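Regression test case RT-17, inverse folding.

Input:
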C-alpha cells in the first residue's frame, strides 16, 4: 500500500488512478485530508507503518507568487518533505527542472550542481537538500513542464487550449526550452521506480520528463494542432511577458539514470501529447 499526498492535484490524481487500476492499495491525501506542514497530522495518518512508500505530490508551485511569499513556498516545498521523511517510510518526492539555471544547452544530469533562479526553485532545491541529508530512504524525481489533459486541472496545456478557443491569435515565448511531461507518464514512471525497489535505498536523485525538447511556442503550437483548434500561435521573446520570477531558458533533463534503473525510456513529448492513451509499461 502507498500513501499519496497532494492527491487532488494533476499528478496526484494520475498516480492514484493508475495505482488503483493496478490493484495497489492507495491512501489518497488531498489538501483537505492533510496539511503537509502539520507534523502531528502526518504522524496520525502515516504513523501506523503499513505503507510501502509515501509519494509526495504536494507542492507550492505558484512560481511568481513565491517571489513575494517565500516563507509559504519553503514551508511546503522544503520543510514538509523533511517532515514526511521523519516517519521512517520510504519517501518518493517530486521536484523540478527549476533547480537549474538553464544557462547551458546540454542535458541536465542528476550529478549537475543546481543553481536556481527563483524563490520557487530555491525552495524546491532546499527540499531536495533536506532529504539528501536526512538519512532517509527514498528518491527524488525531478520533472519538467508537467501537464494534464484532464478537465479541471491547471497547467500550460489547459491555458493554451482555453486561450486558443477564445482568440484567433495568441503569443507564446519561443526562448524557453524544456520537455513537456504528461502527468500520467510521470505517475507510471514513479510506480516503475517503486517496482524496481529504488525507493528502498538511501535517498537518491532521478530525472523523468518527456523525451526530446521544444520551446514553449512549439509546445503551444502542437497543442493547438492536436486539439484541432483554429488559432494562430505567434512566437515572442520572454521580455514580452514580464514576470516576477526568472525561468530557466534551457532545462532539458537527462533521464539516463531512470532508463538504467527501469529498463525503459520515456516516450517522446509529442507522442504523449497526441496520444489518447497514457504511457503504460507496467
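Golden output:
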Amino acid at each position: 500500500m502507498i500513501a499519496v499526498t497532494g492527491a487532488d492535484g494533476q499528478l496526484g490524481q494520475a498516480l492514484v488512478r493508475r495505482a488503483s487500476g493496478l490493484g495497489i492499495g492507495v491512501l489518497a491525501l488531498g489538501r483537505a485530508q492533510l496539511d503537509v506542514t502539520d507534523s502531528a497530522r502526518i504522524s496520525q495518518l502515516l504513523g501506523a507503518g503499513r505503507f510501502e512508500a509515501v509519494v509526495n505530490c504536494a507542492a507550492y508551485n505558484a512560481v511568481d507568487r513565491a517571489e513575494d511569499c517565500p516563507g509559504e513556498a519553503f514551508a511546503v516545498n522544503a520543510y514538509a518533505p523533511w517532515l514526511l521523511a521523519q516517519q521512517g517510510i520510504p519517501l518518493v518526492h517530486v521536484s523540478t527542472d527549476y533547480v537549474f539555471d538553464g544557462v547551458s544547452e546540454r542535458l541536465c544530469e542528476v550529478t549537475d550542481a543546481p543553481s536556481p533562479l527563483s524563490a520557487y526553485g530555491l525552495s524546491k532545491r532546499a527540499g531536495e537538500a533536506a532529504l539528501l541529508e536526512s538519512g532517509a530512504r527514498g528518491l527524488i524525481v525531478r520533472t519538467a513542464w508537467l501537464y494534464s489533459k484532464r478537465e479541471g486541472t491547471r497547467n500550460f496545456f489547459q491555458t493554451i487550449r482555453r486561450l486558443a478557443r477564445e482568440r484567433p491569435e495568441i503569443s507564446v515565448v519561443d526562448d524557453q526550452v524544456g520537455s513537456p511531461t504528461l502527468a500520467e507518464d510521470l505517475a507510471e514512471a514513479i510506480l516503475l521506480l517503486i517496482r524496481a525497489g529504488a525507493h528502498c535505498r538511501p535517498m537518491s536523485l532521478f530525472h523523468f520528463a518527456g523525451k526530446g525538447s521544444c520551446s514553449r511556442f512549439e509546445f503551444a503550437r502542437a497543442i493547438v494542432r492536436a486539439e484541432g483548434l483554429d488559432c494562430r500561435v505567434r512566437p515572442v521573446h520572454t521580455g514580452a511577458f514580464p514576470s516576477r520570477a526568472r525561468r530557466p531558458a534551457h532545462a532539458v533533463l537527462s533521464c539516463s539514470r531512470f532508463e538504467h534503473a527501469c529498463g525503459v525510456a520515456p516516450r517522446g513529448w509529442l507522442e504523449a501529447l497526441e496520444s489518447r492513451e497514457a504511457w503504460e509499461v507496467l
